[in-house]
């Protein structure tokens, strides 16, 4: 089976998963106790039955649940996630305004994790059972065992309040207009301030990924270095540097790719906590706000985006195997 056919088959297999996510999210969101219309109107207008019924009709909340479900699935298939009750604007527009912030946080966290973890895993494997290996394993164990939000709070206390090196909250967007950013005059100033603000949340969100990747990279590298073809290369006098970077690194990255792909869901969940801790207006903080205001369309829309991103991440992980290891086959056993 060719890679193109395998890609199409995986995308088709993702459709029932997406429908399952939409179905579960729809029924759970609509079973939350309370009335989003009364929350939106506030205590002064919550006792006006005519206004409540008018708004419920406006958002279709007066229709039977099964009818709303069928209509919701039909609208999502056309790219319409509904209208936010709290913001009174299309859910897609609300989410589109927050996605770049969450993507910036996640991509920077993954870049930090990969840049730190792969060299650390390789060094740890090459110097197995030496002091540097023990230190690396202890650091990885602490990183895996510590919740992201706790790391974020610790970083704020040490580096923001006591040392004053980094801001404790907020985020300057790299794409922001310099005139709208206090203290910035040029685009370079904006980028410098963005990196300065991003440093602590990036480390807080990326530490767990870094620790997981380091452990997997070390184990995979140790196994690869013990293969027969590596021993044969050593017997022919190939240098250790060439064996490590040319022959051992590439096969050892297969488990790392799996961890990176599946870590996408962990990172999405972690972004909800990190954005809350650092008061960053991203997608994670938006879903908290949607739950607090019982904004059904926004809850379903943000959850759908999270689920869709996870499914796409898994598919990309599967496809990435072909580029790393040509021995991977997408055909049937025959």
TrEMBL record:
Where is it localised?
A: Cell membrane
Question: What kind of membrane protein is this, topologically?
Answer: Multi-pass membrane protein
Looking at the record, the residues that make up the ABC transmembrane type-1 domain are 99-321
- Tell me which InterPro entries the record gives: BPD_transp_1_N, MetI-like, MetI-like_sf
Give the matching Gene3D superfamilies: MetI-like
Biological processes annotated in GO: transmembrane transport
Q: What start-end ranges are recorded for coiled-coil regions in this protein? A: none
Task: Please give the Pfam families that the UniProt record associates with this protein.
Answer: BPD_transp_1, BPD_transp_1_N
Transmembrane annotation, as ranges? 12-29, 99-123, 135-165, 190-211, 252-278, 298-324
Identify its protein family: Belongs to the binding-protein-dependent transport system permease family.
By what name is this protein known?
Answer: ABC transporter permease
Q: Which organism is it from?
A: Natronosalvus rutilus
Q: What is the lineage of its organism?
A: Archaea, Methanobacteriati, Methanobacteriota, Stenosarchaea group, Halobacteria
């Amino acid at each position: 089976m060719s890679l193109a056919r395998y890609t199409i088959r995986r995308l088709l297999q993702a459709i029932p998963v997406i429908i399952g996510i939409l179905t579960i999210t729809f029924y759970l969101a609509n079973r939350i106790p309370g009335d989003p219309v009364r929350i939106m109107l506030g205590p002064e207008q919550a006792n006006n039955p005519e206004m409540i019924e008018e708004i419920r009709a406006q958002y279709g909340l007066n229709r039977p649940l099964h009818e709303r479900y069928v209509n919701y699935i039909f609208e999502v298939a056309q790219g319409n996630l509904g209208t936010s009750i709290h913001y009174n604007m299309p859910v897609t527009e609300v989410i589109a305004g927050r996605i770049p912030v969450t993507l910036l946080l996640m991509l920077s966290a993954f870049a930090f994790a990969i840049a730190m973890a792969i060299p650390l895993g390789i060094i740890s494997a090459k110097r197995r059972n030496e002091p540097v290996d023990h230190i690396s394993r202890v650091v990885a164990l602490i990183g895996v065992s510590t919740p992201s939000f706790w790391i974020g709070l610790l970083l704020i206390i040490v580096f923001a309040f006591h040392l004053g090196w980094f801001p404790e909250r907020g985020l300057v967007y790299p794409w922001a207009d310099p005139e709208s950013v206090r203290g910035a005059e040029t685009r370079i100033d904006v980028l410098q301030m963005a990196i300065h603000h991003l440093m602590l949340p990036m480390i807080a969100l990326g530490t767990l990924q870094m620790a997981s990747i380091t452990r997997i990279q070390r184990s995979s590298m140790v196994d690869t270095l013990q293969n027969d073809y590596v021993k044969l290369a050593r017997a022919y006098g190939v240098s250790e540097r060439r064996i490590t970077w040319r022959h051992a690194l590439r096969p050892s990255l297969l488990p790392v790719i799996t961890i990176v792909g599946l870590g996408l869901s962990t990172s999405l969940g972690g972004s909800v906590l990190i954005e809350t801790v650092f008061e960053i207006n991203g997608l994670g903080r938006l879903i908290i706000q949607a739950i607090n205001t019982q904004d059904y369309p926004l809850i379903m829309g943000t959850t759908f985006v999270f689920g869709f991103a996870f499914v796409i991440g898994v598919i990309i992980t599967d496809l990435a195997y072909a580029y790393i290891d040509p021995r991977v086959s997408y055909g049937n056993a025959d």
